[in-house]
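Lab notebook, bench 4. We co-purified these components, and the gel suggests they stay together. Before we commit to crystallization screens, I want a quick structural picture of the whole thing.
Request: model the full complex, all chains together.
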Amino acid sequence: MAAAGGIGEFELIARVFAPLAADGALGLTDDAAFYRPRPGRDLVLTKDEVVSGVHFFADDPWDAVARKALRVNLSDLAAKGATPVGYLLALGLPKDFSVDQIDALGAGLAADQAAYGLSLYGGDTVRSPAGLTLSVTAIGEVKQGGMVRRGGARAGDTIVVTGTIGDAALGLALRLDPALSGRLGLPDVHRDHLLDRYLLPRPRGALATAVADCASGGMDISDGLVGDLGKMAAASGVAIDIDADRVPLSDAAQAAVAAEPRLLAVALTGGDDYELALSIPEAKVAAFLAAAAAAGIGAVPIGRARAGEGIAVRGNHPALADLGSGSYRHF
Amino acid sequence: MAAAGGIGEFELIARVFAPLAADGALGLTDDAAFYRPRPGRDLVLTKDEVVSGVHFFADDPWDAVARKALRVNLSDLAAKGATPVGYLLALGLPKDFSVDQIDALGAGLAADQAAYGLSLYGGDTVRSPAGLTLSVTAIGEVKQGGMVRRGGARAGDTIVVTGTIGDAALGLALRLDPALSGRLGLPDVHRDHLLDRYLLPRPRGALATAVADCASGGMDISDGLVGDLGKMAAASGVAIDIDADRVPLSDAAQAAVAAEPRLLAVALTGGDDYELALSIPEAKVAAFLAAAAAAGIGAVPIGRARAGEGIAVRGNHPALADLGSGSYRHF
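Here is the predicted assembly.
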């Protein structure tokens, strides 16, 4: 059968994917790969798929799409305190892709494999009638019993978030409404920062060990800070109070919110942050913040877990009235 | 956001997927699952995706589609001599699915989890603009160093296949051309057998231990017997000769070929058999055949590996001239 894009399945594997393969993947010439677990470790397994027109735009460059697909999974591993081992990729290809696009996809994966320390354990390539899809299964490892759970927060813990919140949601808003940046009077550097944070998450894998050592509970913020902390509170059987004024916003997000106050609600409830939300016992907060500082990653206490239930956002900002318990839902 | 099919993402997880979850998947309420490998074992990892309109028909029942998605992966594990542990599933849902369909999907997965002894370690649910997709990552285990490889065939080994060959390819031909069955004069029982074998593979997981104990090389036949044995020959650095008269055909396939001789080429080169193709050293052939008989699964020697390269199909049937080295290509 004639191959799409002028490149056949076996050529595609040999050209793009075999160079990314782990030793146990046998050059991707077998039906499966093997992996020998290290003694004393648990594996951590996670799976996230990205779909053209749903999780990214059809005209996003394929290197960025590939990196996003990998990074949303790496973000889950980081939140669990897990060090990446490898991944498998099911790639759904549209009919009309180009060799340049597939080469870009491979280059994006190669760059992130090197940056995050993992390799490819196999996958599948299928025809995708509606456009590019990438379904990634990521595998990490923790010490036995060491996976940090969403439901691990305890009353009295400090709630810490990494990086900055809301950039990706604001970037998506700018992407959907190209005139918005002008209406907000955003300088190009701020606009570009927000767009880039939507395009390319920054998973906090450099903090995985510190998460495992310090956090009692953790998750990554993928569906919006407020909604996700609500899930953590529910899973942990605690209430979580956060102070809106302490939520870290980038300069770009601050400029957007200053121009249009309702955007604070977008920042606090919008998806795609891929930052960490952690619950840390008081005695370990300083150690975690020091580890984050050493890694060059921002980390800020924004609230506290207490006996009770639900998520409360404290602050006087007028946009807070709009919050509800909104969280991005997947369909 | 309003959910498709009158069922929201969290309800979907709670209703359909949480009952399928492994202990380490924490009721699918976390970002990831953990798995504690057994000492002395390697994990075997494989990933196959099925797409509506490509790997199954849009009007196939969802319980069968779900089972097919799982089974094509279980077939890979069986061919590697691996015992199933668990799987992850990325489910792409069209806009207009019904609760009955999603319940059927869950029931199909539940039935096969019980039949094949594995459970769900997580996944993702996304919107799929072009129709249902299921991307499965399956995890199995073998003794350390014990994964049976495609490239393990050695000169002198006997080539053994399980079950019957070509039923699924003939079933697909019947599905694509509803008048074909009548033209061939096939009784309903034969037509139904072939259609069913296309709809629902029979992975040979019951033979995984025998494969691990006896086979020097192995793969599952997913892209056609001749083409797949050609891949085994190439990966192993041997030639493989098979005798077309010894390839096991079901009564239904024999009837189809008797009516239309060219269909033998379809049977020998068509995809979706999901039977095992094994290379077994002479001294272990009897033990493997005995294990297959004990499991109630057909297993037949059809040829031999020898020094050289390539795949040769011996026999006098006129359709053999059409074979070429055809093998289904994925796009």
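Chain B is about 35% helix and 25% strand. Worth comparing against the SEC data before the next meeting. Residues 4-143 of chain B form a domain with the 60s Ribosomal Protein L30; Chain: A; fold (CATH 3.30.1330.10).
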